[in-house]
Amino acid sequence: MRIALGQINPTVGDLAGNVALCTRYARAAAERGAELVVFPELCVTGYPPRDLVEKRSFIPAAEESLLKLAEATADLPLAVIAGYVGRSEKTTGKRATNSAAILRGGEILMRQQKILLPTYDVFDEARNFVPADKQTLWRTGTGTKGTNVALTICEDAWNDKLFWHPRLYSRDPVEELMTQGGDLLVSINASPFHIGKRELRHEMIRSMARRYGKPVVMVNQVGGNDQVIFDGSSFAMDAEGNLLGTAKSFAEDLVVVDTGAGTGDLNADFPGEIEAVYEALVLGTRDYLGKCGFRQVLIGLSGGIDSSLVAVLAVDAVGRENVRGVAMPGPFSSDHSVRDAREMAERLGIQFDIIPITPAYEEMTRTLAGVFAGTRPGVAEENIQARLRGLTLMSISNKFGAVVLTTGNKSEIAVGYCTLYGDMCGGLALISDVPKTMVYELSREGNRRHEGAIPESVFVKPPSAELRPDQKDSDSLPPYDVLDAILRLYVEEFRSAAEIAEELGLPLPLVQDVALKVDRNEYKRQQAAPGLKVTSKAFGIGRRFPIAQRYFENE
């Protein structure tokens, strides 16, 4: 069978736009001789729709849009598989279903409903959908030329008992379908990106293809929706687990494979993980802004590595003409900070302004002198500077309609090394899931793409917030390579302080101190701008810890 993998970038709630996108790709697939075109999970409605499905009008609108897609592709000599939000036929429970439909000749030939509804990390499908009780095969063709297609929806294919240990669910929908006589497995997905995820999908599907001795088609959504980035990277494998076709990562694509001939398009790219993370952040930023209706961005340029990285990413996401950098030197800013910021802005070709905050800082300290009388200068005075910078950026944002991109990295945000209503002000926390050590790697990647736009001095100078004389990050934090190693195990793998100390060969009190900082700064993170997820566990919708709590591991 000639099958087209329609890797598209739908927008949540843009039903008409998504139908038009599917139609365009279906026509392109037909022109290439495909007998079937497969689109991602919930491609008609966008994923994840979250509580939009609770609106009374949403499910009928989704059903109507599915019918419009059937009508729009009625004249094509192929079948279409598309995901959509359907209405449950059950009289109890949720009203919505995560479903897929098979369309041909203007008719809905079959509907398939998702069984396994994930409720971990960024997923919360059980909140909105009701699961199916069973699934059936779709028979295409006649006689000996017919094919039994086992159609599954994302999580339904992520519970193979021979691959996952331990498993999250007792049921295995793929096994249930294949034992009914499936000849071809088709899995439609909205599988978010994180480091290592693309390789994991290949390993999982290869294991599945070899287990059943049947070809597998895996189509994944591409694009950014809020904090979640979908990398696409769709592919098809033959019965032995060999790649038949591969789609690009982080871009829309149309791949045609022939499961009978064992041939297909091989369009894969972005093999390295650092390059993949860079592309993910660019895509996530572009889609967040574009799908929200924004064009321009604003960045506080400190001359440091974090704001420099955000600037190059922003240029790749929205174009240099839509990026504005602002340097805001204060009483403790070094000369090289402004010089480095200016030099980078000139190399990137972005608009650049210098707005000193020292006069405002001096006036503010005079204003607070009476209240602060008898106390020693400290964090409160330092944070006045950060908050004046936040005020400056938000004022420019209000005046010109540019979205402020915050520049805090994951390492700093994890331990609270950031200022509420200061450097945390903004509409998108672009690198909030990027550890500091990775910031340097991504900045090198940015320099490769932008001919060394970030000055070398930015890479070699010690990181500093420059809120007091001769301040360095190392005054308050362990070296970033040590800190990031601790945070990876504590935040992403939920390891205890004692386990981390033993594995990394570090003093237990040091690890305990870092863990305590993470726990005590939850209140800050829950007030932060939404961030883009690129690791297996980001601070955001996929990590839900209480703020007011007193459970702290003492070991």
Describe the structure.
With 555 residues, this protein is α/β, with parallel strands linked by helices. It has 2 domains: 2-271, Carbon-nitrogen hydrolase (Nitrilase/N-carbamoyl-D-aminoacid amidohydrolase); 285-466, 3-Layer(aba) Sandwich (Rossmann fold), CATH 3.40.50. The protein has helices spanning 15-31, 58-72, 173-178, 197-212, 273-292, 305-318, 335-348, 358-372, 379-400, 410-415, 436-449, 456-460, 480-492, 497-504, 508-520, 522-525; strands at residues 2-7, 36-38, 79-87, 96-104, 107-113, 138-140, 147-153, 184-189, 216-220, 222-225, 228-231, 235-237, 243-246, 253-258, 263-264, 297-300, 323-327, 351-354, 403-406, 428-429. The strands form 4 sheets. It has a 7-stranded mixed sheet with strand order 5-4-3-2-1-14-15, with helices on one face. A hairpin with a 4-residue loop joins strand 14 (253-258) and strand 15 (263-264). The N and C termini lie far apart (58 Å).
Summarize the structure.
It is built from 16 helices and 20 strands.
Mean pLDDT across all amino acids: 95
Largest sheet: 7 strands, mixed
Q: Roughly how many Å is the radius of gyration?
A: 26 Å
CATH class of the largest domain: Alpha Beta
What's the helix and strand layout?
Blueprint: E1 2-7, H1 15-31, E2 36-38, H2 58-72, E3 79-87, E4 96-104, E5 107-113, E6 138-140, E7 147-153, H3 173-178, E8 184-189, H4 197-212, E9 216-220, E10 222-225, E11 228-231, E12 235-237, E13 243-246, E14 253-258, E15 263-264, H5 273-292, E16 297-300, H6 305-318, E17 323-327, H7 335-348, E18 351-354, H8 358-372, H9 379-400, E19 403-406, H10 410-415, E20 428-429, H11 436-449, H12 456-460, H13 480-492, H14 497-504, H15 508-520, H16 522-525
Helix pairs in contact: 1-2, 5-6, 5-11, 6-7, 6-11, 8-9, 13-14, 13-15, 14-15
